Amino acid sequence: MRLYLKVRLYLKEIREMKTIRIALAQINPVMGDFQGNIRKVIAQVEAVKAAGLDFVVFPEMVLCGYPPEDLLHRQGFVAETEAALDQVAYSTKHMTAVVGYAYQQEDKVYNAAALLHDAENVAVYNKIELPNYGVFDEKRYFSPGTKPLIFVYAGVRMAVTICEDIWIEEGQVQYFLREQQVDVILNLSASPFHAGKIEQRIQRLTQTAKKTKAYVCYVNLVGGQDELVFDGGSMALTPTGEILAAGARFQETLLVTEIQLAAPKTHSQFPAAVVISSESKSELPEKIVCNPKLPQLSRLEEVYAALIMGTRDYVHKNGFSKVVLGLSGGIDSALVAALAVTALGAENVIAVTMPSEISSAETRADAELQAKQLGIRFMTIPINPMLAAFVESLQDAFGPGEPGIEHENLQARIRGNILMALSNRFGWLVLTTGNKSETAVGYCTLYGDMAGGFAVIKDVPKTLVYALADFINAKAPGKRIVQSIIDRPPTAELRPNQKDQDSLPPYAQLDEIIKAYVEEDRDPSEIKKMGFALEIISQSVRLVDRSEYKRRQAPPGVKITPKAFGRDRRLPLTNRYQSGFSK
Questions:
Q1: Same domain membership, residue 219 and residue 310
Q2: What's the CA gap between 80 and 60, in Å, rounded?
Q3: Element (H or E) spanning 550, and its range?
Q4: Residue 332 in contact with residue 465, Cβ under 8 Å?
Q5: Cα 343 to Cα 395: distance, rounded to the nearest angstrom
Q6: Quick check: is 120 catalytic?
Q7: Model pTM?
């Protein structure tokens, strides 16, 4: 009899289960390209309709791109964003969509999400929690919202949130979500990538799901925007924090998740302003992604993917088709060339070697071999005649004495001029090849090797440069980066027998100190406790502090660490403060 009752109760529960399907449209917008972004959004709306579904959610600020920065101060920009929403709304006949955009009311601008249903904008949610740290400046542009948005879809109670709303653990949004007993939380996001960020997101989404006892549907932007890369990774979680469905990373995806709930609650004590019925069909075509496993990427794999996407989108979104770089026979330029080939195709990458009398036969040969191995166009432009002309012209001004640092930097600046001349002549974008370790300590030449349009590995420490080179060689069929380039001690080759370690601490130590001082804001006295010699810490910190003026003039590059130079870290150029050591 007990077994009979249990079976009856189980069957009753099955009959009362409510199944809804939500599509999460993870797309790559272009900043300010309203018509292009409208086309992308409407294409996904039509794909959802074709799949027999009627509910789709898009990322934060998808109609204009994120972050718009001071474009938001232009009234016409916000007006065009709102006009774009009107066009998208027209496409939502017989369906429901939640779309991120910028919204202005009187003299206030909001980071908003529109609830569109049956070709009408039926409700707007204004983001309440505004991030103002790291790469975020939302309080500079947006006013915070004051009211949550709860609506009922197919009898299921849903809340709309935007990114930071669920990152503030004890914030008013989290409190409200717990109190309102919602079934599903929609989170529209523009969460930029850094290595390891996906684990932080999963932890935050899991905590939100468990504390609110609700399903969480998270949809993230994908694509490169200046220094930032948005890696997608949209997902849905159960109220117990388990991942129910997860989308691809670093590519556009339409993810459909199935959510099964017990018979919908009445929630009579919590009325909703908007009630929407569903017309979804019961079957899904195979081409729609539904409930895949979470993509497993190692740190090297995700950094590699971010560098590829960041480079490709920066080049293409800024109207370039080809790039040029100086290929010296060193590890940094070899890595940048390999990344550029993967991002843009070998036919769109031009390498230039610019040897001087100091350049060794080995590096010259390796530069040519590297270009051949990658299948890219290779040009040789010796700089000796130009260097000699500079030296002769400056002889009277310099006066007597042996050549010094000015002679080294002249070589780098001549090379920078050559690359920029080729850029002007042929419309190629110059890729610089400096890494984070060099940029941190100023081991680079202003208007020389720093001259260019995009710094691909600007946020990649030297030790990670070598790890990526090994990763590429293991990943690719055949060797992509010449092994002798990897094995050779790094050198700028601006004076005879020069080695990087003649001027800098060993990179293994330097990178750890830079991480502690720059990314973690640790005081030198704290860094000393990590076991580094006082002399090396002092040298490294002094070089970092003195090189801020150089970094301010460097081109943008892909952010892959938690704190990159540029948007993340902002220090005054005129500054006498020196980080000291506690006694």
A1: no
A2: 16
A3: helix 548-552
A4: yes
A5: 45
A6: no
A7: 0.91
Whether 401 and 338 share a structural domain: yes
Secondary structure E strands in 416-484: 429-432, 454-455
pLDDT of residue 499: 64
What amino acid occupies position 83? A
Q: Which residues contact 60 (CB under 8 A, 6 or more apart)?
A: 66, 100, 111, 113, 162, 163, 188, 189, 190, 221
Residue 271 has pLDDT above 90, yes or no: no
Taking the C-alpha atoms of residue 549 and residue 315, their distance in angstroms, rounded to an integer, is 26
**Tens digit of each residue's pLDDT (9 = 90 or more) over 113-125:** 999 999 999 999 9
Average pLDDT, the chain: 88
> Is 80 exceeded by the pLDDT of residue 378?
yes
- Domain range spanning residue 180? 16-295
Question: How many Å from the N-terminal Cα to the C-terminal Cα in the chain?
Answer: 79
Write down the catalytic residue from 40, 60, 444, 559: 60
In the predicted structure, residue 60 carries a pLDDT above the cut 70: yes
**Distances in whole angstroms, Cα of residue 267 to Cα of each of 156, 270, 271:** 10, 5, 7
Same domain for 118 and 166, yes or no, is yes
Q: Are 311 and 432 in contact (CB under 8 A)?
A: no
Dihedral (C-alpha) 280, 281, 282, 288: value to the nearest 10 degrees?
-90
- What is the pLDDT at residue 5? 47
Whether 60 sits among the annotated catalytic residues: the reply is yes
> Cα–chain-centroid distance for residue 113?
22
Q: Which of 40, 80, 163, 436 is catalytic?
A: 163
Confidence of residue 15 (pLDDT cuts 50, 70, 90): very low
- Angle, vertex CA 183, rays to CA 180 and CA 189, nearest 5: 90
Residue type (1 letter), 456: V
CATH number at residue 435: 3.40.50.620
Is the pLDDT confidence value at 67 over 70? yes
Beta bridge partners of 121: 116
Q: Note if 163 is an active site residue.
A: yes
> Mean pLDDT lowest for which of 64-68, 306-310, 465-469, 486-490?
486-490
Question: For the chain, how many residues are written?
Answer: 583
Please give the average per-residue pLDDT across 48-65, as a whole number.
93
CATH of the domain at 118: 3.60.110.10
Asked if residues 537 and 528 have their Cβ atoms less than 8 Å apart, the reply is yes
Cis-peptide, bond into residue 67, ω within 30° of zero = yes
pLDDT at 279 over 70: no
Tell which residue, 346, 250, 258, has the closest CA to residue 295: 250
Residue 328 and residue 471 share a domain: yes
At 232, give phi and psi (nearest 5°): 70, -125
Domain shared by 217 and 244, yes or no:
yes
Catalytic position from the list 64, 80, 127, 512: 127
- Number of Cβ within 10 Å of residue 60's Cβ equals 25
